[in-house]
Amino acid sequence: MKFSRRSLLGTGLAGAAGIASGAGAFASLQGYGAKQSKIKNIIFLVVDGMAHQTMGMVDVLSQLNAGKSSYWGWLMDQKFVTNGLQATRSLNSIVTDSAAASSAWGSGQHIFNGMINMYPDQTALKTLTTLMHEKGVRTGLVTTTTITHATPSGFAVSIINRDLEPIIAEKYLTSGVDVLMGGGNRHFAGDKRKDKRDMYPEFEKAGYTVVKDRDTLMKTKSKKVLGIFSESHLPFSVDRNNSAELQKTVPTLAEMTKHAIENLKDSKNGFLLQVEGGKVDHAGHANDLASIVYDQIAFEEAVKVAVEFALKDKETLVIITADHATGGPSVNGMGDEYVDSNKGLMSVNGMKASYEVLARKFGASPTADSIRDIIKADLGLELSAAEASAIVAGQKGQGPFNISGFLKASGMTMANILGNHTAVTWTSGNHTAEHVLVTALGPGSEMIKGLTRNVEFFDFMLAAKGIKHKNPTMDYATAQGHYEKMKLSLDQEWIEMHSVHEDCGCHHG
Ligand SMILES: [Zn+2]
Ligand SMILES: [Zn+2]
To answer: CA-to-CA distance for 444 and 265, rounded, in angstroms?
Structure first.
């Protein structure tokens, strides 16, 4: 953010653990909203866990396949956009999780990983959608994860633990958010929740139309929508693309985005819409190449929907970014003069299943032969006997990378062996600290360039709508003191009882 750099210099990173807050950004934005009265709508598109190479892989693959850029690659090169980077840290780590990252946007403050718009002393921060709702701005959240997951809820909810998804479902009921779409039936349905409370009739009573499949979504004209299209997260795009059944029942992110924009666009005071491509993060945690590529493409198709709307509308600010990177994928130079890299990456074209599907086919005790057959059939790769044996060893926790804390999980072992064929290897199954891409367009976008810190987006979006609010700041030492006490005083049994750990293969989705 060029215009606020001077004011931000005074709040630079303060030591190893003492983390700077977003203080200072707001003052420099005052008056900005008044000058930019043409910002009616804001669409914030976030691809969860996208590394530079994730976007880059899809771009070079598109070059190889079709001789042209990927959509984001094309977009970055247009005169009407600005490009930059975002710094992504949280209050207690240089590597953020999705909860602290979305909270940075949602309340303008750095908080601890694992929490949502709340400090460890249970001070709740006022959220972006609440502030917008109070000013008559309509709001929407659209995602491919559970709608109660960290990234969507980071715009709307304050809660001490991100795993309390059934409670987040309850909080949405009174949040004022008009459009909610994603997965997560098990956090809403009375026969799935531990407390047996059925949230659907309560949402209907509050004026929402509840939608549970793609066809019904396409027909609904209701202004308040709760769309839940899966038991947990929506399927990976590679699996949806290869299943007629999933294509019928589950909408794409682009379809949900289109529907949400149509729904929100007539709002007198404008709208704020968050769109999340959440499965890129899950694919990154799993080191799953086919899943990450096809979900990145699906995200970029949703970006296209938003950009085409904004270019016609001319009063919509579009921000496209990630919350952090996940998995550290890289296309490596392979073979003589590196020419084998092209064919390696193009092997994605023949891949038909996510690791989730492969794992089901492997079963509990796969053999080298069964693994070779399944990988040949579903990924189109011919493994050597030694490679297949190493993958089997990895499944038993005895893989060749067992000494590495970052690569010893069975999925990581398999992925890095598949790298012999795909040219793609991974650094870990965790989030990484890299700065992530930001592209923006529409009124106000000229302010978003250079390096922007995650907490600044809150001030920026509020200023765009002429809203003033500053949440309290807490330094790391104070927060850590509260955290120690919290661990003793919070009813951990209650948290355990109400929390749901998603089975996405990641500890922090
Ligand atoms: Zn994330
Ligand atoms: Zn994650």
So the answer is: 19
| pLDDT tens by residue, 392-420 | 999 888 988 989 999 988 889 999 999 99
Contact of 420 with 404, CB cutoff 8 Å = no
Whose atoms come closest to the Cα of 502: which ligand?
2
Tell me the residue ranges of DSSP E strands in 119-184.
138-146, 179-183
98 tagged catalytic? yes
Whether 8 has a pLDDT exceeding 60, the answer reads no
CA distance 318 to 495: 37
From the number of C-beta atoms within 10 Å of its C-beta (0-12, 13-18, 19+), residue 138 rates as buried
Report residues near ion ligand 1: CB below 5 Å.
Answer: 48, 98, 281, 323
The residues, ordered by sequence, that sit 6+ positions from 14 with a Cβ below 8 Å of its Cβ are: 20
> Which of 17-31, 353-367, 494-508 has the highest mean predicted lDDT (pLDDT)?
353-367
- pTM for the whole structure: 0.91
- Reading phi first (left if > 0) and then psi (alpha if -120 to 50, else beta), residue 486 is in alpha
Q: From the CA of 97, how far away is ligand 1's center (Å)?
A: 6
> Looking at the chain, which residues constitute the CATH 3.40.720.10 domain(s)?
2-329+430-498
Cα of 41 vs centre of ligand 1, distance in Å, is: 24
CA of 251 to the centre of ligand 1 (A): 22
Question: What per-residue confidence (pLDDT) applies to 419?
Answer: 98
In this structure, what token pair is assigned to residue 133?
């709702």
Burial zone of 312 (CB within 10 Å; 0-12 exposed, 13-18 middle, 19+ buried): exposed
β-bridge mates for residue 436, sequence order: 86
The single residue of 62, 90, 98, 158 carrying the catalytic annotation is 98
Least confident of 23-32, 158-167, 267-276, 295-304: 23-32
Q: Would the CA dihedral through 151, 157, 160, 162 be positive or negative? A: negative
pLDDT at 485: 87
Q: Which amino acid is at 389?
A: S
Phi (first) and psi of residue 470, to 5 degrees: -130, 120
What is the topology classification, in CATH, of domain 2-329+430-498?
Alkaline Phosphatase, subunit A (3.40.720)
Given pLDDT bands bounded at 50, 70 and 90, which one contains residue 449? confident
